[in-house]
């Protein structure tokens, strides 16, 4: 399970727990404030002070805000110190060639993804030349620190200046819905093996979260209903927190009801539409089929039976559905 997600970020996490009226306090507590940094020159990320203050701690995520992957320069930074750029053909030609890069074609545009290790790039002979190019790229960036007991806001204001640092909050919403038991068992928590299975899951989740009449999509289901609790978090969310939810908090959502032989939890993790990074690790053959300029998300169905965890992981990129991982 640890190898499914990349060390990237998402903008929304939905958690569905059937037959429960749950309080998600432990999961709520994982979400700190995040920040919007404005008018940031990318060359500022190459300084000794930035490396010492942020990169050496290994807890900083950055992601460009209000940029379009198909036609704008986009950037993100992972805690390991990888600066990933999506740039135009003209800008790509100006950047020294011996960086890891790949090309992506969009309607009317060709973009290039370039990965730069901030710590290693300072040792290069052409460092000053690269820095002069990055000085010309100015972006607004979302920022998140995964260390909870650190005065991250003060560090940001000290480094970038208070006028360029703005506080944001993740939006957290808890709801309890009623859903026919038959639909929960036969659709939401069955083994998803093909596109039609996932289409049915999406329709059911959409109805539950948006209060749409189920009869529009499903017919002839039984009258017996169960409660299903929904937790939705929206904002800027590192995948590291999603991993922590999976590893440390899923079992706390399971009732100790001795009559229940097994229990299931469903997560839906939404990627940013215009992120240079995808949510999950894919095989090289699947990586080539991706369209990262469309909304992508991961659906994970967990089944806990006598303390044995099994799961299905489904990745949807635009209209294509991939079985990422199965652990039966």
What does this protein look like?
The chain starts with 8 loop residues before the first strand and ends with a strand. With 328 residues, the protein is α+β, with helices and mostly antiparallel strands. A hairpin with a 2-residue loop joins β13 and β14. 23% of the residues lie in helices and 38% in strands.
Strand content: 35-45%
Summed up, the helix count is: 10
Overall pLDDT: 82
In total, the number of strands is 15
Q: Regions with pLDDT < 50 over 5+ consecutive residues?
A: none
Shape: globular
List the topology elements.
Layout: E1 9-18, H1 25-28, E2 34-41, H2 48-53, E3 60-64, E4 74-77, E5 82-88, H3 89-94, E6 100-106, E7 109-117, H4 118-121, H5 127-134, E8 138-145, H6 152-160, E9 165-168, E10 171-180, H7 181-188, H8 195-210, E11 225-238, H9 239-249, E12 262-270, H10 284-287, E13 296-305, E14 308-317, E15 320-327
Antiparallel strand pairs: 1-11, 1-12, 2-8, 2-9, 3-4, 3-8, 4-5, 5-7, 6-7, 10-11, 12-13, 13-14, 14-15
């Amino acid at each position: 399970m640890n190898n499914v997600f990349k060390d990237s970020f998402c903008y929304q996490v939905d958690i569905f727990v059937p037959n429960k009226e749950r309080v998600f306090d432990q999961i709520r507590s994982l979400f700190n404030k995040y920040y919007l940094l404005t008018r940031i020159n990318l060359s500022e990320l190459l300084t000794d002070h930035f490396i010492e203050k942020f990169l050496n701690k290994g807890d900083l995520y950055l992601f460009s805000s209000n940029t379009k992957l198909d036609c704008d320069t986009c950037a993100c930074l992972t805690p390991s110190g990888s600066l990933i750029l999506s740039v135009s053909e003209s800008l790509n030609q100006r950047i020294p060639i011996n960086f890891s890069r790949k090309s992506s074609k969009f309607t009317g545009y060709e973009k290039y993804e370039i990965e730069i290790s901030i710590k290693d790039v300072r040792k290069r002979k052409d460092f000053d030349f690269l820095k002069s190019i990055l000085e010309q790229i100015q972006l607004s960036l979302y920022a998140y620190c995964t260390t909870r007991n650190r005065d991250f806001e003060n560090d940001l204001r000290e480094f970038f200046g208070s006028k360029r640092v703005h506080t944001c909050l993740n939006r957290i919403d808890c709801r309890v819905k009623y859903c026919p038991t038959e639909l929960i068992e036969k659709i939401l928590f069955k083994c998803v093996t093909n596109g039609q299975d996932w289409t049915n899951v999406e329709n059911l989740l959409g109805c539950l979260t948006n209060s749409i009449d189920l009869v529009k999509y499903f017919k002839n289901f039984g009258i017996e209903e169960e409660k299903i609790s929904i937790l939705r978090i929206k904002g800027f969310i590192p995948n590291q927190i999603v991993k922590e939810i999976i590893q440390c908090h899923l079992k706390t959502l399971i009732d100790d009801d001795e009559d229940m032989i097994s229990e299931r939890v469903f997560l839906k993790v939404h990627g940013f539409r215009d992120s240079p990074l995808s949510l999950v690790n894919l095989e090289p053959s699947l990586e080539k089929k991706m369209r990262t300029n469309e909304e992508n998300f991961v659906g994970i169905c967990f089944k806990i039976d006598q303390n044995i965890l099994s799961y299905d992981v489904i990745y949807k990129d635009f209209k294509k559905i991939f079985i990422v991982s199965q652990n039966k």
